[in-house]
Amino acid sequence: MDYAIRVKLNSKYWVDGKKLCQVLSISEPANWTTNVLREMAAQISSAVDEYSAIFEKLLSTIDNLDIENPKIPKLVKEFNDLLTSLVENHNGVSDDKIEDVKLSIEELKEFSGTWTRFKRKGLGDSLVAFRNALALGQLSESSIDEGLTLSTVHTMKGLEKDIVFLIGMCEGVFPDYRARTAKELEEERNNAFVAVTRAKRWLYVSYPKQRMMPWGDLRFQQKSRFISEIE
Fold it and tell me: Could you read off the pLDDT of 10-40 as tens digits, one per residue?
């Protein structure tokens, strides 16, 4: 399920896509396009057993999720009921596959618990925010508030820390070089406001004098216009 959500968020995550194909025992799509989950579901649809039908439906359901408001509890309940029914009734499914289904139920339960922690912590509503929080270790049951947290501005929205280090505040990064219109620049300014107001006590703002670009050039940098506005 996690692999499918990653592919839903970005169909070009072909590494996760290939792992998903291996799990489902299907061939890889010729092109990693926005319809890749639909293509995978179509491959499974050729099978007639109930086991395959459930996973075909799961892929189709994830493909149709609203990224901003995915209604995960409804999805979890629906597929937990389907998988549990399959375990109880068998319906001609082999014992090996039944064991796989039991494992899927446990993974679904773990996924549900992780989503619940995400919502209780107020880290957002979208699948993107959920994946970011998961990647940053913010949803671990054993997570603690001590130490250093590396985060994005969007992930920290709604949260506060005593000390915040805001790095990379140079033109082309913050605001982003793609922000050219007045509306886009205003959105970047609002993001900067979110960033600086995450600090309860101390805020450290820094920017590099020069940066190594991805293609190997070394370029001098100018501090962000937002630093002057703060001052």
Answer: 887 778 888 888 888 888 888 877 788 888 8
- 49-85 pLDDT per residue, tens: 777 888 888 888 988 889 998 999 999 999 999 888 8
Q: Can you tell me the distance from the alpha carbon of 110 to that of 30, in angstroms, rounded to the nearest whole number?
A: 32
Residues 53 and 111 in one domain: yes
- One domain, residues 121 and 165: no
Helix segments in the chain, DSSP class H: 2-9, 14-24, 36-44, 50-63, 72-89, 95-120, 127-135, 182-196, 225-230
The C-alpha atoms of residue 37 and residue 64 are separated, in whole angstroms, by 10
Q: Is residue 48 part of a domain?
A: yes
Based on the domain organization, do 101 and 22 belong to the same domain?
yes
Residue 47 belongs to domain spanning: 2-131
